[in-house]
Amino acid sequence: ASQESELWKIDFPTIKGRYTGTGDLCAALFLAWTSPNNVEGCSDFSLSQSLEKVVATMQCVIQRTCDASEVAGSLDNVAARELKLIASKADIEQPPIKYKAFKV
C-alpha cells in the first residue's frame, strides 16, 4: 500500500436548503464505499470511485428531500428537512454516477 497522499476533487451543483443528517450520511457512505467488502475488485481500491458514489448518493438523497419538502411547502420546517433515506434506498444501493472525481 502506498503511503503517498492524494488530493481529489469533484465539481457538482449545490442544492438549496439546510438538511438534517447530511454529515452523518456522508461519513457512513464514505466508510461503506471504502470498505474492502464494497470496493469492486477488492484488490484494486479506487478512492475516486468511492468518492463518486458518495457524491452521487448525497445528491440523490438531498434532492429527494428538497423535492418532498417543497411539495409539503415547508422547506423551513425541521421535520421536512430530515433526509428521505428510506425513499432513497435504490440510490443508496446503486448510486447513479453523474460527476467524476479528478486528481488535483
Overview of this protein structure:
InterPro entries: PyrdxlKinase, Ribokinase-like. This protein is mostly helical and 104 residues long. It has one domain. It is 41% helix and 4% strand. It has three helices and two strands. It has a two-stranded antiparallel ribbon. The chain is elongated, with a radius of gyration of 15 Å. The mean pLDDT is 86.
Rg (C-alpha, Å): 15 Å
Number of helical segments?
3
Q: How do the helices and strands follow one another from N- to C-terminus? A: EHHHE
- What portion of residues is helical? 40-55%
Total E-strand runs: 2
Q: Uncertain runs with pLDDT below 50, 5 residues or more?
A: none
Question: Mean pLDDT, rounded to whole units?
Answer: 86
Strand content: under 5%
Instruction: Describe the sheet with the most strands.
Output: 2 strands, antiparallel
What structural class results from the helix and strand content? mainly alpha
Shape label: elongated
Provide the spatial order of strands within the biggest beta sheet: 1-2
Give the total of domains: 1
Kindly report how far apart the N and C termini lie: 20 Å
Enzyme class: transferase
Organism: Leptocylindrus danicus
Protein name: pyridoxal kinase
GO molecular function: ATP binding; pyridoxal kinase activity
